[in-house]
Every structure is written in structure tokens, then in C-alpha cells.
Design goal:
Helix content is about 75%, strand content about 0%. It is mainly α and about 475 residues long. It has one domain: Amino acid/polyamine transporter I. The longest helix is centred in the middle third of the chain and has 48 residues. The radius of gyration is 24 Å and the shape is globular. The relative contact order is 0.21. The N terminus is likely disordered.
Length: about 475
């Protein structure tokens, strides 16, 4: 008997033949029913976007939002709303590429682009991953230093030694979070989602303490404005808006999101077998299987869009809460460029010790979760572009060594955080442009290729982000 024709290459599942008895009375194995996406199962598909959303509430966002709220109050809340809309589009396209092709963004780049282009994209992605992970790691160390530094100071530790101890403890904690993956991808996701939940609760508590003017906040969110009271204030408010928008989409999490959907994709399509029915031709088998595959992918995409929408809006609310807190707590501060440490030391006298502690806990959770995500992204990048197996714990050490060296030498960690944002600005086009090119190709996405309106929206977003990043880079160069 002739073998069943294979499913077209590029799909995310494999096929196996059904046992066939000899003679005219052959056993029939029907195609399994498509997975039932009932409402009570919806929550099992939530997770990838929440892990990706960590990049939007990392320590870099803490610093940017605190400065924006201190200088201009509620005025720049609208920037976060538009940033969130961009994030939803970009993160969904990344997830969509992974779901439809069954490959990560780096793997797709290696498959569809030349070797020279692939190596160039890998180099840019590697720089962005290392810069991001090191910055987030330093953010976690700062959070630990704020919480436990006074205890070490009382035992004779210097500020540099205290921060170094905090960095070493952060290393152990991140290794612990990564170890959750040994119990399954869902446990790692739950761990990171738990940290995101703590950040949200912390900022909910901060907003409750400061009692913002909700009417002004809503108007500032819906109506784009800049400070026109003077030329200098206009320039400063524009620069803050550029800083907030320009750092919206992190390149490492674009690569990562296309990988985060893979475990669920394999679970959905792993049982998808071609029918072997004597009453149908092989072409009928192929068409039936392909229809089932497209149905599964379509439903998965709908759930992932919901996942992205909820997760990105959660990150938007947290970022907005940062500005609300800063607008109320620091609006009369003489320091218009407060650091994270300044914010911590200001909250205590104004709203009590609990406000400062909660702020530091949120920063610690942000640093730990975003550092973990940075390590995961780095592994996806090196394995996808170079087609090698790379232990994730070795990846962690690659970042730990330069971060600890930076602290030991005495460099300002906050300065390193700022410089990492500049590095990411340069690396961003190397992730966004391949993503839009690939998701717009019918040869890659088949019938799931992006519609014209989606492609237009995507390139507009890329244009806006790159233009704002260019302004930020130029401003940083001549500051």
C-alpha cells in the first residue's frame, strides 16, 4: 500500500502512520478531534505574554517613569497609553510567528535569510540580550541593597561591598527561579507571573497611599499634551516622552515571545495525525489534516491575542501607577531628576516606612523577573541563530561576571542602566524589521500572513519607535 503523503514542511508537528491490517478489511483510525477550547480551559493558555510583559516593567521603566512623574506630574500619562498599543501589536506578531511556523524568530531568521544576514542579526541580538540582562541584574541588586543594605552597613560593610553582596544573592535567586523550569514550563511561568503580581500589588498599595487626582489623570491619559509653559519645559517634556516611547519595545523580548508559545503549540499539535481511512484518498487525508491544523492554529492565535491584550494592559497599569505615585509624592521635590534610591529615601518620610519598603520590594521583584527573562531570551537567541544547544545556567554566568565586575570596579550601576537603554536603541531595528518582514511573507506564514492594514500599522510603529530612538540617541550624545 502507498504511504500517506507527508504534511507540508514547516508545520509544527510530525505525522505517523496508522497500523493497517492486510486484506480488504483494513482498520480505520480517524483523525482526533481538535482540542476543545472551552472557557474553563482558557486560563491554561495564559502565560507567554505575561512573561514577556516583564520587559515593560523592568528597573529601567522605574527610573524613566519616576523622572517623568516628578517633572511633569500627570501630563505624560498619554505616552504610556500609546506605548501600550505599540507593544500589543509587536508582541502579538512575535507570538503569531512562533505559533504558525513552529519556530522562534531567530530560527526563522536562520531559515529564511542568508548566513551573512543571520550572523549580523545574531550579533545585534546578542549585544541587546547581554546589555539587557546585565542592567536588570543590577536592578535586582539595587532592590536588595535598599532593603538589606542598612543591616550590612551596621556591620561595617561599605556601600560597594554591600552592593556586591546584593549582586551575589541576586545571582542565587535568579538561579532558583530558572530551576522552576525543571518541573515544567508552567512552573517557571507561574513563578514569573507571581513576581509580576507582587509588583502590581505593591504599586496598587502606593497609589492607595498617595490619593492621586483621578480626573486629571484620566484627562492626561486620553489627551496628548506637552508642557508649553516655556521653551525649556517643552524641550524637557518632549525628551521625557521620547525616552518613554523610545524604550517601549525591548528587542530581547521580541525574540523570546516567539519561543514562549512553543510548549503549548507542541501540546496542541502533537496528537494531530493524518487520517487513514479506506474510503478517502490520500489527498483527502492531507486536506482534512491541514484543515484541522489551521483550525487549531486559528483558535490558538485568538487565545494568544487575548493573553497579549491582558498582559500588556497589566504592564500599562503598573507603569501608569509609577507616574501617579511620582506625580503626587515628588511634585514639590527640588530634585527634578530623582534616582531610584532618591525615590526610596523620599517615600519613607512622606508616607511612612511601609511605602519605602513596598517600593523596594517591587523593584526587587522587577529586577529578578526581568533578569530571568533576559537569561531565557539570551538562550533563545544563541540557540536559534547558531543552531547550538546552550545550557541556560552557563548563559546566566555570562552576564553575572561582567555585572559583578562593574560593581567591584566601582562604576555607577544607575549609569550602567542608562547606557543599556542606549545600546537597546541601536539593537531594536535588528529585531523589529525581520519580524515584520517574516510575518508579512506568504511563503513563511501561508494564509496567516499579516493583512495589509496590519503591515501598515507595523511599519508605522517601527518608524515611530526608530525615529524616537534616534532622537534619544542624538540627545544622549550631545547631552
Amino acid at each position: 500500500m502507498d504511504e500517506v503523503q507527508p504534511i507540508p514542511a514547516g508545520t509544527a508537528y510530525t505525522t505517523t502512520e496508522s497500523p493497517i491490517a492486510a486484506g480488504p478489511h483494513r482498520s480505520r483510525r480517524r483523525l482526533p478531534a481538535a482540542p476543545n477550547f472551552r472557557r474553563n480551559q482558557m486560563w491554561t493558555y495564559f502565560g507567554p505574554a505575561f512573561v514577556a510583559s516583564v520587559a515593560y516593567i523592568d528597573p529601567g521603566n522605574f527610573g524613566t517613569n519616576i523622572v517623568a512623574g516628578t517633572q511633569f506630574g500627570y501630563r505624560l500619562l498619554w505616552v504610556l497609553l500609546w506605548s501600550n498599543a505599540m507593544a500589543i501589536l509587536i508582541q502579538y506578531l512575535s507570538a503569531k510567528l512562533g505559533i504558525v511556523t513552529g519556530l522562534t524568530l531567530p530560527q526563522n531568521c536562520r531559515k529564511h535569510f542568508s548566513r551573512r544576514t543571520t550572523l549580523l542579526l545574531w550579533a545585534a541580538a546578542e549585544v541587546s540580550a547581554v546589555a539587557t540582562d546585565m542592567a536588570e541584574f543590577l536592578g535586582a541588586a539595587i532592590g536588595l541593597d535598599l532593603l538589606f543594605g542598612p543591616l550590612l552597613y551596621s556591620h561595617g560593610f561599605s556601600p560597594k561591598a554591600t552592593l556586591l553582596v546584593a549582586a551575589l544573592v541576586s545571582t542565587v535567586l535568579v538561579f532558583g527561579i530558572l530551576a522552576l523550569d525543571l518541573a515544567g514550563h508552567l512552573w517557571l511561568e507561574r513563578g514569573i507571573i507571581g513576581l509580576v503580581g507582587v509588583i502590581g500589588l505593591c504599586y496598587g498599595f502606593e497609589v492607595f497611599l498617595v490619593h492621586p487626582d483621578w480626573h486629571r489623570a484620566i484627562l492626561a491619559t486620553l489627551i496628548p499634551t506637552l508642557d508649553l509653559s516655556s521653551r525649556q519645559y517643552f524641550h524637557d517634556s518632549l525628551l521625557d516622552a521620547v525616552s518613554m516611547l523610545g524604550a517601549t519595545v525591548m528587542p530581547h523580548v521580541i525574540y523570546l515571545h516567539s519561543a514562549l508559545v512553543q510548549p503549548r503549540l507542541k501540546e496542541l499539535t502533537g496528537a494531530l495525525l493524518p487520517a487513514n481511512d479506506a474510503l478517502h484518498t490520500e489527498e483527502d487525508h492531507r486536506r482534512t489534516t491541514e484543515r484541522r491544523r489551521r483550525s487549531i492554529l486559528s483558535r490558538f492565535l485568538r487565545f494568544e491575542l487575548l493573553d497579549v491584550f491582558v498582559a500588556m494592559n497589566g504592564a500599562w497599569l503598573i507603569n501608569s501607577a509609577m507616574i501617579l505615585m511620582s506625580a503626587v509624592a515628588f511634585m514639590h521635590s527640588s530634585n527634578l531628576q530623582p534616582t531610584i534610591q532618591d525615590a526610596y529615601h523620599t517615600l519613607g518620610p512622606l508616607f511612612g516606612r511601609s511605602a519605602a519598603v513596598v517600593f523596594a520590594v517591587a523593584l526587587l521583584c522587577s529586577g529578578l523577573s526581568s533578569s530571568t527573562v533576559g537569561v531565557m531570551a539570551g538562550q533563545v537567541i544563541i540557540e536559534g541563530f547558531l543552531d547550538v544547544k546552550f545550557p541556560i545556567y552557563l548563559r546566566r554566568l555570562i552576564t553575572v561576571v561582567p555585572a559583578i565586575a562593574v560593581i567591584a570596579i566601582g562604576f555607577d550601576p544607575l549609569r550602567i542602566l542608562f547606557l543599556s537603554q542606549v545600546v537597546l536603541s541601536f539593537a531594536l531595528p535588528f529585531a523589529l524589521i525581520p519580524l515584520l518582514v517574516l510575518t508579512g511573507r506568504v511563503a513563511v506564514m501561508e494564509t496567516f500572513a499579516s493583512a495589509l492594514r496590519t503591515r501598515v500599522a507595523g511599519w508605522v510603529v517601527v518608524g515611530v519607535i526608530l525615529a524616537l530612538n534616534a532622537v534619544l540617541i542624538v540627545q544622549s550624545a550631545f547631552a
